[in-house]
Each structure stands twice: as C-alpha cells, then as structure tokens.
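FIELD: query
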Amino acid sequence: MRSYLFAPSPDFDRPRTAEARIDRLAATLPAADAAALRAEFASERLAAGSAREAYDRVDQVKTLPRAEPFDLSALRAAMADARAARLALDQVLQGVIAAIIPKMSPEGRGPLAEWRPPYHPVANCPQ
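FIELD: result
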C-alpha cells in the first residue's frame, strides 16, 4: 500500500508547480498559442499558487500512517483534505485552459485536447 500511495511519480524530478505544468503544456503549442496560454495563466498565477500551497501542506497523509496510536479517522480526513486541495488546483488549471481555448488556433487546440494531467494516486484514492 505504501508504494501505491507514496511512491514518486515517474516525473518526480520535474518541477510540479502550476507554472511548470503550464510551461510544459505551452512547449507543445505553436508560439502564438503558447504565449496566449502563458498570458492567461499569468492572470490566475496567485490562485494557482495558493491552491498548490494548500495541496503541498497536506503532509499528514505521509505522516499519519506512522503515528502511534494509529488513527484511521485522522488518516481518512487527511486524505479527503488532499483530494479537495488537488481538486482546487485542477479547477484553476482547467479554468485557464477553458478560457484560452476559444482564442487559440486550431493547431494549438489539438494538443490541448490531448493533454491529460499526470496520474496522482493520492488524488484518486477511494473515499
């Protein structure tokens, strides 16, 4: 179970900030569309940063399994907090993408249609 929940993702050495994700996505787009995406993100940078900080603060998911006595309710609550924080971050990034799509070229919309965020086991745990 530990390896499933806490193992680093295959891209663990890459920056995981919202801005880094936008930059990785922008790198797949034509120059004008990439610039427009980055500009749209700039207007949501504060919200994305706040959401990412909240997600990063959910360290209890990693520490609670070691606690004595073990508290299953506390672990479940921390997991729920992690899911909520992850959802908030995804909503900001998806909002940026939704806002920019109508302004993009057809060549730029294609890569956006194919883009998927990386899988995060903690975010996909059953409730």
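FIELD: remark
Residues 1-6 have pLDDT under 50 and may be disordered.
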